[in-house]
Specification:
mainly alpha; 70% helix; Four Helix Bundle (Hemerythrin (Met), subunit A); 7 helices
């Protein structure tokens, strides 16, 4: 059952995210202040996702440098920060509740499933798990590996610029709602 749900969660997370975005835009009640405060979570989330995407070499090597030396899931942490930022922008408790439900029912099983895959693929994964937390980062690097560096080519290959463009589009719609509500 657990494995089946993980598989289903992986398949539905993106379409469910789009459906959630539509509901979000429908019930959001932004204010100038909420939009400004939301940037404190959205911008670092976008930056973390961009930074992490320039390090990860999916399915080719266990990435333990850059942000991956501080958290095993910087991409998900960045996404969570972005989502919480938009909850601030929306000024709606239902949005926050929806984000919590989605995280615990969809993203946590996906993270666990990905970890099972990585454990089978990379012999050093258990040692990595013992040194680096799953989601919330440690201050000092937990792993010392070959010096990795950010790769703009990886950033482009992973199309992480889509997170930035999506955030800009959401802010544009929220600003339009704010403007026409007045």
């Amino acid at each position: 059952m657990k494995t089946n749900w993980s598989r289903i969660a992986r398949r539905i997370r993106v379409p469910l995210g789009f459906a959630f975005a539509i509901a979000f835009l429908w019930i959001a009640q932004p204010s100038p202040a909420s939009l400004a405060w939301s940037l404190l979570l959205v911008l670092p989330g976008i930056a973390l996702r961009a930074y992490a995407s320039g390090y990860v070499k999916k399915n080719r090597e266990l990435t333990v440098t850059g942000p991956y030396a501080h958290t095993r899931n910087p991409l998900y942490l960045g996404s969570l920060s972005i989502a919480l930022g938009f909850a601030v922008a929306a000024r709606n408790w239902w949005i926050l509740a929806g984000i919590a439900i989605l995280f615990f029912t969809i993203y946590l099983p996906v993270i666990r499933s990905e970890e099972e895959f990585l454990r089978g693929m990379f012999p050093g994964f258990d040692d990595y798990c013992g040194r680096v937390p799953r989601l919330f980062p440690r201050i000092t690097p937990g792993m010392q590996g070959e010096a990795g560096k950010f790769s703009p080519a990886l950033y482009s290959r992973h199309r992480e610029y889509n997170a930035f463009m999506g955030a800009v589009a959401l802010y544009a719609v929220l600003l339009l709602r704010l403007y026409f509500r007045r």
